[in-house]
Design a protein that fits this description.
Elements: E1 3-7, E2 15-19, H1 50-58, E3 76-77, H2 82-88, E4 91-92, E5 95-100, H3 107-120, E6 125-129, H4 136-141, E7 149-153, H5 163-184, E8 189-193, H6 199-202, H7 207-217, E9 223-228, E10 239-245, E11 269-279, E12 290-296
Parallel strand pairs: 5-9, 5-10, 6-7, 6-8, 8-9
Antiparallel strand pairs: 1-2, 3-4, 10-11, 11-12
Length: 301
């Protein structure tokens, strides 16, 4: 028994099978476009060497992978801390760098050092402060030229009544200010201080926002820093530095002229460890080596 498959206009897309032996009036099977009532030109026989012709004509302008030019590594600048520069090679321009760690891990020390080094190079910098936590006197003591620093305060209008909503409002102000700053350009370093925001609030920043920031700073001489408790930018950051306290954090001054009290201790220095958790600058895996540096208080000399 032979069969034919036809389609009716009453049921488009539904096929019916009829026995052609018992239904002599049924039209024999059609093929290809003619099956749907469209005139079809006769098939052309492809030459035997068609694959070679297609490859030579269609792929003639495709550059081989071996001839692709590697993207040059971005220019790096000093972070102000020699140990950090030795570990990372410096802070990359045109990239997003994340600096994360818990409280008392050296985040503010590294932030102030980077701002100090940038302003001493004659660059104008911006600190977008989500929690209004910058102390201008500490910034000046760290060597920051304040006349070259734009301080965007996102949390100064908060009060105890609105304390639970402070993180959301500050975060909204920070994102809006960052968009405007990246669009305007002209800054050597833009730092986003998210270190004092609740982690649940900082994690609400969508990945698309970080991607937009990365694309906005790309091909510019701006260093974009994000100071956080935990990494939240994901693959959008080119460099991720993790900080943490190490060893004894409280030290007594060795040349003190007075006897230290027994009920209290004077903080003079913090020992901080740093490691590169991710690096996309030189297309090499991140180094697992750690370095240690000290952060001294202003009164300790």
């Amino acid at each position: 028994m032979s069969s034919a498959v036809i389609s009716t206009s009453a049921a488009q897309g539904r096929f019916f099978v009829f026995d052609t032996e018992n239904n002599a009036g049924v039209r024999p099977p059609l093929a290809g476009a003619e099956f749907f009532g469209v005139a079809r030109s006769p098939q052309k026989v492809l030459p035997a060497d068609f694959p070679q012709i297609f490859k030579s004509e269609k792929l003639a302008h495709v550059t081989a992978a071996s001839r692709l030019i590697a993207r040059p590594a971005p220019e790096t600048v000093s972070s102000g801390i020699a140990a950090i520069d030795a570990l990372t090679g410096g802070l990359p321009r045109g990239c997003l760098t994340e600096i994360c760690g818990p409280a008392s891990s050296g985040r503010t020390t590294l932030l102030l050092s980077a701002l100090s080094a940038a302003t001493r190079r004659g660059e104008f910098c911006v600190l977008v402060d989500a929690s209004d936590s910058l102390d201008p006197q500490s910034a000046a003591a760290a060597g920051i030229e304040l006349d070259r620093l734009l301080w965007v305060r996102c949390g100064e209008n908060s009060n105890s009544v609105e304390q639970r909503h402070t993180g959301e409002k500050s975060l909204e102000q920070l994102l809006r200010a960052t968009d405007l700053l990246l669009e305007s350009g002209g800054f050597g370093l833009i730092a986003l201080d998210l270190g004092d925001l609740p982690p649940q609030a900082a994690r609400r920043i969508p990945l698309t926002t970080w991607f937009r920031f990365r694309r906005a700073v790309e091909h510019t001489p701006t260093v974009l820093l994000a100071i956080e408790r935990q990494s939240i930018a994901g693959s959008c950051s080119s460099l991720l530095i993790k900080l943490g306290p190490q060893g004894q954090q409280i030290k007594q001054p060795m040349n003190s002229l007075f006897h230290p009290p027994t009920h209290a201790q004077l903080l003079t220095e913090l020992e901080i460890t740093a490691e590169v958790a991710r690096s996309r600058i030189d297309r090499k895996p991140a180094r697992s080596a750690e370095i240690t540096f000290a952060s001294k208080t202003a009164w300790a000399g």
